[in-house]
Design a protein that fits this description.
By secondary structure, the chain is α/β, with parallel strands linked by helices. About 30% of the residues lie in helices and about 20% in strands. The chain folds into two domains: about 5-105, Rieske [2Fe-2S] iron-sulphur domain (Rieske Iron-sulfur Protein, 3-layer Sandwich); about 120-345, Rossmann fold. The protein is elongated and about 85 Å long. Bound molecules: FE2/S2 (inorganic) cluster.
Length: about 375
């Protein structure tokens, strides 16, 4: 039954007509106010997906495009885009009077959420039966048509071979061959805008970062990430991947669930110059925040040092070194042994109730003081 109208003056029509889409607050009601082809529209400002501010988006014809993950709603009726009409946000009656736009905030239509098919990655991580699984992630960049010797790839291959000899299934992901977008900062819009699976993955079926997510979250028991050292840091491709893995860390911090459970990570770091400890520290810190465990001595590394710019020698040393090859094989063995032990425990090693002090976990004592 319609309620007594409560018409609220949203402002002068000629001023409001200058914006095709904007957010507005009318008393306590947040709306997305739109103007197109001489017609004003007003719908709820909260998107049906995870509450993105529709008025901060733009128009695609008569549909508002949510700025967070691009779901669309009709700007006048609130209905979802074709195929999702029943997935609708509340729409408010609008009238023009005396050159002003009025919105009846007492009589919106009903919000109705129609489930969208979840992304395949969104399934609950469940380890499928089978032998131990070891993934290698190569993060070095090179011209595929004109390849060069890579020390970090070389040692990663030794590690994967050793894993195979131990009876593990292995898989190599070479970031250099994947086409994936750089993180576009959805977290900077809102922590809820940075979703699991990644917002870009959900919107862009051509983006190939899904292969990394599938491997880390669903497939692997252990992962070894290899990187060259570039100016004292891991490679640019490593950081491009890490930024896109933010959604995994956000999921750990914000929800009562852990995507990464009882999994192990190790690292291979090879550089012409130094700062191995710094690179290893950064990699260990990030993968620890994702929830990975580490074996004793969790990385193998090599560098020639600050004053040695003789890269030909560096390549020769890594390529011919039995010592380093054995080191990479030993790392794979330690990673798989720990993964095996963790799998045998069967339960998460770290109960969620013990998460106090974690990144992104608010401290209730501080909130009481604030
Ligand atoms: S599409 Fe609107 S919040 Fe995700």
């Amino acid at each position: 039954m319609a309620r007594e109208p409560e018409w609220i003056d949203a402002g002068a029509a000629d001023e409001l007509a200058k914006h095709s889409c904007r957010s507005a607050r009318l008393k306590n009601t947040q709306i997305a106010l739109t103007f197109r082809d001489g017609v004003f529209g007003a719908v709820s400002n909260a998107c049906n997906h995870v509450g993105g501010p529709l008025g901060d988006g733009g128009l695609d014809g008569d549909y508002i495009v949510c700025p967070w993950h691009q779901w669309k709603f009709h700007r006048v009726t609130g209905k979802g885009e074709p195929g999702f009409e029943e997935d609708c946000v509340p729409a408010f009656p609008v009238k023009l009077e005396g050159g002003h736009v009025f919105v009846d905030i007492a009589n919106p239509t009903k919000r109705n959420k129609k489930p969208h098919d979840p992304h395949p990655l969104a399934r609950k991580p469940m380890r499928a039966p089978g032998p131990l699984r070891l993934a290698g992630i190569s993060t070095t960049a090179m011209d595929a048509r004109n390849p060069r010797f890579s020390g970090s790839d070389h040692l990663l291959n030794h590690a994967l071979e050793a894993g195979k000899k131990q009876g593990a299934e292995t898989k190599l992901i070479t970031l250099n061959t994947l086409k994936f977008r750089t993180c576009e900062g959805y977290f900077s819009k809102s922590s809820r805008a940075c979703t699991w699976p990644c917002s870009i993955t959900q919107m862009d079926p051509a983006d190939e970062m899904d292969q990394v997510y599938e491997t880390l979250v669903h497939w692997a028991d252990a992962v070894i990430v290899s990187t060259p050292i570039r100016w004292g840091a891991a490679s640019a491709l490593y950081f491009k991947m890490v930024e896109r893995l933010n959604c995994v860390q956000v999921d750990v911090a914000s929800k009562e669930e852990q995507l990464i459970q009882n999994k192990v990570a190790g690292f291979i770091i090879v550089g012409g110059q130094d700062n191995i400890q710094g690179v290893a520290g950064s990699m260990l810190s990030f993968f620890a925040e994702l929830g990975f465990f580490f074996p004793q001595f969790p990385y193998v590394a090599h560098s020639r040092g600050w004053s040695a710019e003789d890269m030909e020698n560096n390549v020769r040393v890594v390529r011919d070194s039995k010592f380093l090859a054995q080191g990479a094989a030993g790392l794979a063995k330690r990673c798989l042994e720990l993964a095996d032990r963790l799998l045998k425990t069967g339960t998460p090693m770290v109960p969620m109730s013990e998460r106090g002090g974690m990144k992104g976990r608010a401290n209730p004592e501080m909130m009481e003081r604030d």
